[in-house]
Task: structure prediction
Amino acid sequence: MAKILIIDDEAAILEMMVQLCNKIGHEPLPFQTGKEGMEAMAKERPELLIVDLRIGDISGLQIIQKCSEEYPDTAVIMVTGYGSVETAVEAMKLGAFDYLTKPFDLGDLQRTINRAIAQTAGDIGAGATVAASIAPTLVTESAHIIGKSDPIQEIHKIIEKVADNHSPVLLEGEFGSGKQLIARVLHEESSRREAPFKILHCSALPENLLEQELFGAGGHANTIFNRAQGGTVLLEEIHHLPIRLQSQLDSFLEDLNGRRLRGSLPENLDFRVIASTTESLEALAKDGKFREDLYYRISVIPVAVPPLRKRQDDIALLADHFLTNFAKLTGTQKQEIDKYAAKLLKNYDWPGNVGELQNAIERACTFAENGRVRPPDLPPKVSQKVEVSDEDSNGGKVQLPIGSPLSEFVKKQERLFIRETLRYNGGSREKTASMLGISIATLYRKMGLKLEREKLLS
Result:
């Protein structure tokens, strides 16, 4: 059992970490202020310190620096929000063992705790073995992909086939489509599941810190690859990686692949690479904006992640999942969605994909009454739509937001009526114009067509 001092001013997150430490057999020492935490450091001398980057009274960086100078035997894990990842990487220079970005997975937190404690036990190379002897394994809820649509079933088949393959995987899809979740499922379905799952946000760090995370700096090899020993590294939004670092990464991965084939791969460099992108790397490579050799190296197994609008059959399942999660989080009864609200959810395009749907359900649960989500409870951009006929759209229908100018509705209905009259008259524009009581020029204008000058003058 190890003493783990935790400093975080968010009570809910602090309690969650306390419960985790208790479950895996350690003694948590929780504090919501830096001052109280540092006073306890001097008395308790814990094996591990977990500290939030942003706490009210003292900067997390100050605490890490002080801990590094005065308590070098205490390992430090930094907890930070996505927007402060750059500062968290700077914290590594001050001696932090690793960092986690909020919201973090409990399994990731446990694995990081185990490895940090293993470091204090003096056996970094065999971290997983030492950690296993110190702390029991906590069974956490596994990541899983929700959906039964054909695109999702195809992804399940790919995961089943390649989970234990060492080959790199490239996930391409829109923001919020679930690329990180798929990467996590790939990891958890593989034999690497007990090892770390690390994420490097290539769009969140400047070039110098990206280089430090990937390849180390100043003779220190505390890179994201070393910290993922035996596990998986997700290079998120890899299209943001500068060209210079793309070249270095390609050479690095080529060398690792050669060592793996020769059977001489060091244990600390045994990891799998998954990359994700919201842009087509093939197109970027053709335009000279992404190295072609790196593209081919990381896209051995390409996976196209569909946007939510391409998997409408999954919307109801996802909504139900989010309703269940909200009920658990708030300790309330699970709410239901009425059929009118469900239809609106299915017909909306969801440009923000699964993340936008989750936010919409959370908002709806907040405003819903009597345990039922109705159209007014949904975000206005989802609920305030009117379906009108429009032959210019593929399905013959278009969603007009409530609040659109009346002229927009009239224009669409007018054009539809003109087209039907044209069909009735066998395509004769002259007969149609006469029947509608308008000029041929007005007919063409309302249809959005150009009329030749000589016809206008005839």
Notes: The chain is about 50% helix and 15% strand.
